[in-house]
C-alpha cells in the first residue's frame, strides 16, 4: 500500500503529533501514540519507524528547550551525558543493522515491570531533590553509553529508564529528571534518525506535519510538568510505563 498524504490524513497526523508531544514531554512514551497512527495510514514498518523518529525529534527538542529555559536543565551539567548517549546510540544503531534485536523483546518488559512496581511501592518517589548516590560524571557516562546504545538498538521504554535512573542515582525530583531525560532522548533520537535518513526510510511531508503538532504539544506538556511537578508527572509516568510494558508483552508472547 503506497502512502499518500491527503488533507484529511495531514490533519489527523497533526493532531496525533500534538497528543504524542504532550505525553512524551511529561513522561515519555509518545511513540505509543504516534507509531500506531503512522502504521494505520499505510506506511510500511521501517518507514513508519523512521518517520516517527523525525517527528519525535522535534517534540523532544521543543520540550528540552522549555526545560532549559525554565531553569530545570543545565546543558553544562548534561554535557557528559549528551556525549556518552551520542556514542552509545551510534553504536546501537550500527549494531542493529548487523544483528537481530528480538532477544530484547522478552527482557525489556520484565525490567519495565520492575520500574512500575518500584514506583508504585515508593509513595515519595521523585517528589523532592535528594542526595545523589553516584557522582554525576560517572552516572552520565555509564547510563549514557548503556541507554544510548539501547535506544539506538531497540528503543521502547528508554525515557522511563532514564527518568527512574536519575531519580534513584542522582536524587533528582521527577520534574528535573523529566527535563534531563528529554535532553538525552533528543540526543539518541537524532543519531537514530540519521540512520533512517541514510537508508531512505523517512516520509518528510508526513513527519514535518506531525512535527508541527509535536512542537505545540511538547511545549504545552513540559510547561504543565514544570508548573505541577510530580503530582502531574508521576501518574502519567506510571500509565506510560504500564502501557509500554503491556505492548511489549503482547508483541513478545502473543
UniProtKB/TrEMBL annotation:
User: Which keywords label this protein?
Assistant: Cell membrane, Membrane, Transmembrane, Transmembrane helix, Transport
Q: Which Pfam families match?
A: TauE
Protein location: Cell membrane
Transmembrane ranges, per UniProt, are 29-49, 78-96, 102-122, 159-178, 190-212, 232-250
Q: What is its main location?
A: membrane
What kind of membrane protein is this, topologically? Multi-pass membrane protein
PANTHER family tied to this protein:
MEMBRANE TRANSPORTER PROTEIN YFCA-RELATED, TRANSMEMBRANE PROTEIN YFCA
Q: What family is it from? A: Belongs to the 4-toluene sulfonate uptake permease (TSUP) (TC 2.A.102) family.
Q: What is this protein called?
A: Probable membrane transporter protein
